Amino acid sequence: MNVRIQPHEEHAPPREAPARRAGSAPHPLRVESLRGFAPWAAGALLLALAWTLAATSAQWQGSWGVTTSKLSTAAGVVGVPFALAAGAWQGGRERRLRMTELRASTARTPLAQLLTAALPLACWLAAAYLVAVAGVLLACAPYASAGGPVPTVFAGAALSIAACTLLGQVAGRLLPWRLTAPTLAICGYVLYGTLGLSESGFRNLAPAYLSLVGDYDVPVWWYPLVSALWPTGLAAAAAVALAAYRRATALLPLAAGLGAAVLLVHTGDGMLRDNPLAHRQVCDESTTPRVCVSAVHPGMLPEVTHVLSGLTGRLKGVQNLPVRFEDLPRRPHKDEAELPMLTPFGWSAVRGKVTDPERYAWEAAMMLVGPDCEESPSAERVQVTQEAVVRWLAPDSAQKDIRERSVASARQRGDTKELAKLRAEDKAYAHLTAMTDDERRSWLGRYFATAHDCDPNPSEVPSL
């Protein structure tokens, strides 16, 4: 039997497995978020918002309503145009860098490519706005004494900024020119101003728009979210129409956005409600008259009471005075005197302090002796008496300087009639000052019995 002997086969050494890579490639979203244009754009937006809001800090520190309004305005005037421009610049990147063919050769769908580039930028810009919001609210908190912010307002504004970023990205893809970004920014600014200044319901279509008047109005909680749904629906529809395979699906977000727009236009101011605190006041019962301030700013009561302490101290024991200084959005009652204006902040009061105490006390004295009167009394003797009472109740260095200049001017012109009136006022003031405390209290009681009349009968007003 022939046996065939097979030749000896040497076993080949086993192949070595290919070495694994130390780390996989980072996700494109991570690259766009950390190494791309988005962080730099967010930093620029944060600086722009910080500069804009810091420049007007005296006007909003101390009022939640004004702070909310300023943040919404900053979102519309600064954030929305910036987002449109940044999105457009990002959208035209591939064309500027001649990477259009490379982008088309990737495995990701056009919609995925669009969102990969747009979402990091949108999130960064929205986050920059929310950081600015947090800083402003922290700066307002030490001086605001009632109420609080409405979080949905800031969430809606941030969502509007993100939506405008996506809109800008779509515009940049369609019109990849260098001038597209600044043109969109200008258009966004003009559109916000045009709609916001409109008297019709179309003003509510301005992105991040909120028509608050100080602390007298409060938005319903869902209003900012519906306001943000309008630009968000448009942005989603534009993105789907540009990059999705089934472009008919763009009708769904478009319908949502248009539905929100119709609701905003037809509801109008119905999405704001009265702030109940604006119709109440808190009072200091220890003074005569009592000093009351709006319940929106109860923290101002100690400051106002201190500023008016000289005035109320001189009125202690005087009869026929008004019951209180009132601070409500209405005309004062017959037994009330109107408190000089504290709001809007930034003028008479800044960060919980009255800016010019002497002037404020003088205005309060004027409200006391001539309540809600558009013109001075017609009788000169009554005018002279009124001037003397105000000078004694609330001495004001600025009024003293004005008086000295008036005397010098009258002498220079040779106006004997004006000089005679000023001398009569000085004589009446000297007479009132020379009275004893009891005599003065008795005289002031008779005077304030007629002070509620804007043009009293001279025979009823006690003379000096």
General description of the model:
This protein is mainly alpha-helical and 464 residues long. Helices cover 57% and strands 5% of the residues. It contains 18 helices and 8 strands. It has helices at residues 28-35, 38-55, 57-60, 64-91, 93-96, 100-104, 110-140, 151-174, 180-196, 223-243, 251-267, 301-307, 309-314, 357-369, 380-393, 397-413, 416-434, 437-448; strands at 217-219, 272-274, 281-284, 290-294, 324-326, 336-338, 349-350, 353-354. It has a 4-stranded mixed β-sheet with strand order 3-4-5-6. Strand 3 and strand 4 (290-294) form a beta hairpin. Helix 7 packs antiparallel against helix 10 (223-243), helix 14 (357-369) packs antiparallel against helix 15 and helix 16 runs antiparallel to helix 17 (416-434). The longest helix has 31 residues, at 110-140. Residues 1-13 and 16-20 have low confidence and may be disordered.
Poorly predicted runs are 1-13, 16-20
Structural class: mainly alpha
Shape descriptor: elongated
Elements, N to C (H/E): HHHHHHHHHEHHEEEHHEEEEHHHHH
Chain-averaged pLDDT: 86
Helix content: 55-70%
Tell me the major beta sheet: 4 strands, mixed
Order of strands across the main sheet: 3-4-5-6
Q: DSSP strand (E) fraction?
A: 5-15%
SSE order and pairing:
Layout: H1 28-35, H2 38-55, H3 57-60, H4 64-91, H5 93-96, H6 100-104, H7 110-140, H8 151-174, H9 180-196, E1 217-219, H10 223-243, H11 251-267, E2 272-274, E3 281-284, E4 290-294, H12 301-307, H13 309-314, E5 324-326, E6 336-338, E7 349-350, E8 353-354, H14 357-369, H15 380-393, H16 397-413, H17 416-434, H18 437-448
Parallel strand pairs: 4-5, 5-6
Antiparallel strand pairs: 1-2, 3-4, 7-8
